[in-house]
Design a protein that fits this description.
Blueprint (H helix, E strand, L loop, with lengths): L9 H32 L6 H8 L10 H28 L3 H22 L7 H12 L7 H20 L1 H8 L24 H23 L6 H10 L9 H22 L5 H18 L4 H19 L4 H35 L1
Helix pairs in contact: 1-2, 1-6, 1-11, 2-6, 3-4, 3-5, 3-6, 4-5, 4-8, 5-9, 8-9, 8-13, 9-13, 10-12, 10-13, 11-12
Protein name: Fusaric acid resistance family protein
GO cellular component, one term: membrane
Keywords: Membrane, Transmembrane, Transmembrane helix
Length: about 350
């Protein structure tokens, strides 16, 4: 037997955290901060959602070498911008509900297939679905269609540049200071065969059925912001090849509920937009630190991030915003849990037969 490992000192833990997470979290926070503060300076913070979804480009390419990262981040940027553009077009043209539902199905299928084939991380269509539905729900004058899509494009391009900036920093530091930076071990490869895997299409069916059912129920019950229920379903259902764990789903539900409480503490005092923006940037940083360790814990910060941006884009009574979020999270999560249980039951039957 080998010698037992000695406990890490505080400095070693801080060094490990820096090597693994600080660089990525800083990029993500910077990518969302700059566009939002520009909009605040221009007195157009009502367009925060479009900048935020473009900035989500920086959430991709984590721990990947730069040649591969460029591919991953570019695919994510295109997916996010197309989702925003589609949702904004639906809003500007007053498209009927069935077109929004059809667009949702297309985004879910394309998002899951692209993630599986190109090895994207996060491997779910969550951010694409979120961008589509929020932008489709925001009233949009037809004359501002190009402006709003353009903001998403500029924000995505800035996020892409920020995400690739470490290449220059590493070259400038050279070998002498190479230990300042985290290693880049993740090497996703293109797998066209992934598009034929049964696990992928199981995830597609789960997400499509769950999203449409959650959206329909939320609208039938007259709950505001029905897209929260859809987003909750997509957040709960695991990606292809991931274990269909009930505990993981429950962690996500608890994380969202705690995130709603944090959002209440932030928004009930009715702070000025500058304070909300600072909180959004801090939440983005914290969420990116936690997401690789515990998605449920990350949701404690993802929720105020999302609700803070939603409140800036379309201010509503805080109590209404929070209640809608809690109710629809419970609805979407319940549907997601049922689909997780159904998949486990079908898997067990397949093994027994």
């Amino acid at each position: 037997m080998g010698e037992p490992q000695r406990p890490q000192s505080l400095s070693e833990r801080l060094r490990s955290l820096t090597a693994l997470d600080i660089e990525v979290a800083s990029r993500a926070a910077l990518a969302v901060a700059v566009p939002l503060f520009v909009l605040l300076a221009l007195d157009r913070i009502d367009l925060a959602a479009y900048a935020s979804f473009g900035a989500m480009t920086a959430l991709y390419g984590r721990s990947e070498p730069y040649r591969l990262r460029l591919r991953s981040v570019s695919i994510a940027a295109v997916g996010l911008v197309l989702s925003v553009a589609l949702g904004t077009t639906l809003a500007a043209t007053g498209a009927p509900l069935w077109m929004t539902a059809l667009s949702l199905v297309v985004v879910i299928v394309c998002g899951l297939v692209a993630a599986a084939v190109f090895g994207l991380f996060p491997p779910t269509p969550l951010f694409f679905v979120f961008g589509l539905l929020v932008c489709a729900a925001v009233p949009t004058p037809s004359g501002e269609l190009a402006l709003r899509i353009g903001i998403a494009v500029c924000s995505a391009l800035f996020a892409l540049a920020v995400t690739m900036s470490g290449w220059l920093l590493r070259r400038a530091a050279g070998r002498r200071h190479a230990d300042w930076f985290k290693s880049l071990p993740r090497s996703p490869r293109i797998r066209w065969s992934a598009a034929r895997e049964p696990q992928l299409w199981l995830a597609v069916v789960q997400n499509v059925v769950g999203a449409l059912l959650a959206g329909a129920l939320a609208m039938a019950l007259g709950i505001g912001h029905p897209y929260w229920a859809v987003v909750s379903v997509v957040a709960v259902i695991p990606p292809p090849h991931a274990r269909h764990s009930i505990s993981r789903a429950l962690h996500r539900i608890v994380g969202t509920a705690l995130g709603v409480l944090v959002t209440g503490l932030l928004l009930f005092p009715e702070p000025p937009p500058l304070v909300i923006l600072i909180a959004v940037v801090v939440a983005q940083f914290a969420a990116e630190i936690l997401v690789a360790r515990n998605y449920g814990a990350a949701l404690v910060f993802v929720t105020p991030l999302a609700l803070g941006v939603a409140h800036l884009a379309s201010p509503l009574p805080v109590s209404t915003l929070l209640i809608d979020r809690l109710v629809e999270t419970a609805l979407g999560a319940a549907i997601g849990l049922l689909l997780v249980l159904a998949a486990r039951w079908l898997s067990a039957r397949g093994r027994d037969s």
